[in-house]
Amino acid sequence: MGYDAGMIHPSHASEARRALGALALFGLFLLAILTLPGDKLGYSMDFYVPIHSIMEVLSVVVAGLIFAIGWSSSRHYGPRAVLVVSSLFLGIAILDLMHLLTLRSMPDFITPSTPQKAIDFWLAARTFAALALLAAVTLSWQKPALLPRSLLVGLVLVMVLPICVLLTFRPDWLPATYIQGQGLTSFKIAFEYALMAIHLTVAVLCLQYLRVPRVFNASALLAATGIIAMSEYLFTLYVNMTDFHNLLGHLFKIVAYVFLYEALFTETVEGPYQKLQESEQNLALTLDALPDLLFEIEESGTYVDFHASEPAKLAARPEQLRGRNIRDVMPAEAVDSILKAIIEAKQTGKSRGTRITLDVPEGHRHFGLSVARRDKPDGSHTYLILSRDVTETVEQEQAIALEAQLNAALLQIPDAAGELDEAAFLRHGLGIIEQLSGSPASFLCLTVRDDPASLACVWPHGSGIGAEEPMPASDACLHAIHGRKAVVIDTGIDRPAELGLPESCRGWRRALLLPILDGEQVRLLLAVGDKPQAYTEQDISILQVFGKSLWQSVLRRRLDGEVAKRQEQVNYFFDTNLELLCIGNLDGTLRRVNQGFKHLLGYTPDELEGRRFMEFVHPDDVDETERQLQNLAAGSDVVDVENRWRCRDGSYREIAWRSKSNGDLVFATGRDVTDSHRRDAELRRLSKAIEQSPNSLVITDTKARIEFVNPAFTDITGYTLPEVLGRNPRILKSGKTPASTYAEMWSRLSRGEPWQGELINRRKNGEEYTEMALIYPLRDAEGRITHYIAHKEDITERKASAERIQQLSHYDQLTGLPNRVLMEQRFRGVLEQMKRQKHPFCFMWLDLDNFKDVNDAIGHGLGDILLREVAQRLRGQLRDQDVLARQSGDDFTLVLPGMDQDAAAAAAADLLSVLQLPIDVGDTELLVSGSIGVAMYPNDGETLDALQMCAESAMYRVKQDGRNGFRFFAPDMQEQASRRLALTSALKHAMARGELHLVYQPQMSLKDGRLVGAEALLRWRSPQWGDVSPAEFVPLAESSGMIVPIGDWVLRTAAYQLKRWRDAGLPVETVAVNLSAVQFVQPGLAAAIAKQVTDIGLAPEHIELELTEAVALKNPEAARRIMDELSASGFRLSIDDFGTGYSSMNYLKRFAIDKLKIDKSFVDEIGVKGEDQAIVVAIIQMARSLGMSTIAEGVETQAQLDFLRDNGCDEIQGYHYSKPLDPERFEAFVRGAAAH
């Protein structure tokens, strides 16, 4: 074929040789045919029809087999190329069959059979064959089909059916392919050449596949497509429908189909079968290489199959396993574990981690199991069990666990030794020994008096250490002791006495006796027994380590106990002595102190030992103490010294020390002499105290004869001790003290009880005074009264001060009326009386109208005179039982007992009438009025607070209605007052909680429609009240003083926002911010807000400050000065709501104002009221004449906008352009406006 065999990949070699040989053979055959004369091959053959029919039948059969093998393989393997090729060959089989049935030599099939009809079916079949071969080399032989096989076959049938209908009924619609007597048409020949071109393309692609590793049988496809191409060439040569060329073409076609069948068979049947065989061989080799055992068993435990590379690890002989149940060959414990693993695998598909222990021919082994469920086509299950020998792993784990157990046991010994007595400690050790050795029984023996033949035994469940027992020479224990090594008894112990073992050892299967040495001498003998397995060197090693540690702990306990006993004896004497005992060095360092220091001075021994004695001595006593210590060091036998020692609480106690030296040590005892010194000092102080006391002291005998008075008595009464000695205290009587006081005094004193009370007495000079006296009897040791002692204090001035305090604390100092405290007391009295009598009464709250303005106008001095006159007039209108009090400022409260609503109304009218009479204050005659709120008991409340609240609310309603009147309380007043109070309280926290925020309303130029600025408007969104109107909360902020910090926050927030906008490139020139009246008069306003703005990074000219007319006109001169400062700082100024106040051109000319804002109320009436339109025009003209600009707020309609533009207004803001927006929406509005 002219193709280099060296370019063929080795994986194709054998197949390629066969395919290329076939191509060469048929090629030579074709050349041979072409060399024969045409007249020899072009004649009509009589036997053509039967041979042709046989070959067509073979073609149909082979095509059907190709379809069948592809259809069958698609159930399991189903590569994309195989399914498409086999489906197309179904169509080829149908079309070849139709070709056979429509030959002229055959009976008519549906319509008359003609050469044209037969050739058309032939060409259709050949076209499908070319497409099938093209699909075979272009589609994947590895990826599954994209469509289901039934759908793909259906598509082929859908294509074949119309072709059959067309060629059967309307062959005349197609070009002629054969003309009787002339042969093939050029169309038919060209069509055949086109098919040859497709087959040659397929052949080239097959050659490319031969150069790479084998994916499919490209060699067979190469042979098939090459031979079909030769077949197609032969079909261009025949002249007669029954000549030799035609017959040879059919023969070539059948051979090509056979090669194609081979290719499909190789890939779909032979190839998978070979892979299966290889896989089984690999699996067998893998299983042979694995050291693990593999079993397949049923759910009941019956062996199905097994694989064992090491039969010595099987629980039974291999020939005995298959068909038997695991219960027959394994212990019950292992069977239960396996069945549990099978149940888990049945539920989850697998089970891992199960371990079993078996005695197999190889010995005692541990196996780890992995179980997997195997699902069978009939729905039943078997289970694959992989059994791995993990004996070494288990033994390593056991060794590690045993070592860990030993370490844990060694760590327990010190704690147990400290908590248990010796016998209990040894029993505790026996329990650990049994665990470490795996023995169910044990005992130990202690050697007594270093005699190895005398042992004292300890049993695990005894209550102490057994009595000493001598041991016979043949005793097994004695052998272990003398040999100093372990003795193992592996025979059963049926006669323990013969071995010198206790009777309790009878029945032990084996025993281990282990001596524990301390140096060369055996101290302990450990005995364990009855272990199921034999004792090993590992058991001996572990018990040896533990036993040594156990003995060391016993020894340490005994030594510690002896030392502790001796120490306890010393400590008992040292610590139970109540005096101070200490031992120190000659340099004064304390080495030991007793508990007396803690009881007396508060120091524990640990706090003192190691510190110097002098650290605790009072600084004034250090020198003397040091001198005595030096005497002791110089050889003095005993020294005595007193000093003050500092206690732990910082106080000092006086200690008398006696010290004695003994070599380098000093032994000292101390005795607390603080109390004795203190008693002496107290006696001296008591004498001084009595002499120096500012209060008089009188001592009399039981006959009331004076025996002693102190100097204070003389100072207070004027009588000296000689003048009163032996006399009765009645010489001081003034006659003002009630007789009942004296009667009570002597009644109590006669009963031996103290008496205290006030006496009004007379001094020697005749002046009366009041004294507080405490008189009590003085008893001797037998309890008899021997004297009376009187302590007396002159309280004359104190009583006068108390009366003055009473006046100051209960009365208003300006008007002399009761204050709020006294009002509350008297209200309680009225309330109790009215409750008893079941009568009503009224509570009034009176507030003078405009008193603040009057007070500012006439001055506070005259204002006080006015309040006193008002109080006098009100008092003159009341009854004796009525209560009038000054609440605060110009507020008065009244309680009028027994008055119903009609009487209360009449009383309120009388009070208002008397208030309205002219009042002369200095040189001024004033007319005042008041507003009275009235609350009725019990309808409006039953407490002072409730009635006050109701009356105050009613008074404020009078103020709202125009003042100078009275009103009874109604519930809606309280609701409004409560809301105002709650809003005020919530507003105090609103800024800190982030409830305040700003919105911005665009301000637009009427000249060019561009954005010129925005007004910052304050909003409050309360979690409790929702959105609160500025008209409601701003007055509350002003009245509560919160408007200043809120105003600062608004200015700062608006400036920050404008800075961000300008930094972002938005064309926003200014932001207008409102200044409240309270803010406006703050000292240093201009400098403060200019610093705020510049610190943010803005120039002041970008901030416009809006003021109301009322702010400007309240104090025009002060307002002008502040405005000048603001303007000089660079701020723009505007008058808000212009036109609603005085709107005076006079003040406008003097103020540094840049802009007038036309109030919304005038804008709303544009087009409605002519006078309001005229006011708008006048404002615009006035501003223009003064060089100011104008802005109208509240513009909502086009008509309003047109009117303002036509009359020369400069700027507007309002809903016509935009409502107030949050910063993000305002930014979007600005960007949208800039885009237009």
UniProtKB/TrEMBL annotation:
Q: Which PROSITE patterns does the protein's record reference?
A: EAL, GGDEF, PAC, PAS
Single Gene Ontology MF annotation: cyclic-guanylate-specific phosphodiesterase activity
- Lineage, top-rank taxon, reads Bacteria
Annotated EAL domain residues: 980-1234
Domain (PAC) spans 753-807
Boundaries of each PAS domain copy?
Answer: 566-636, 682-728
Give the Enzyme Commission number: 3.1.4.52
Q: Which Pfam families match?
A: EAL, GAF_2, GGDEF, MASE3, PAS_3, PAS_4, PAS_9
Entry-linked CDD domains: EAL (cd01948), GGDEF (cd01949), PAS (cd00130)
Q: Which Gene3D superfamilies match?
A: 3.30.70.270, EAL domain (3.20.20.450), PAS domain (3.30.450.20)
**The GGDEF domain covers which part of the protein?**
839-971
Keyword Transmembrane helix belongs to the record: yes
Answer whether the UniProt record assigns the keyword Transmembrane helix to this protein.
yes
Q: Which UniProt keywords apply?
A: c-di-GMP, Membrane, Transmembrane, Transmembrane helix
Report TM segments: 20-37, 49-69, 81-101, 121-139, 151-169, 189-210, 215-235
Write down what this protein is called.
cyclic-guanylate-specific phosphodiesterase
User: Which organism was this protein described from?
Assistant: Arenimonas maotaiensis
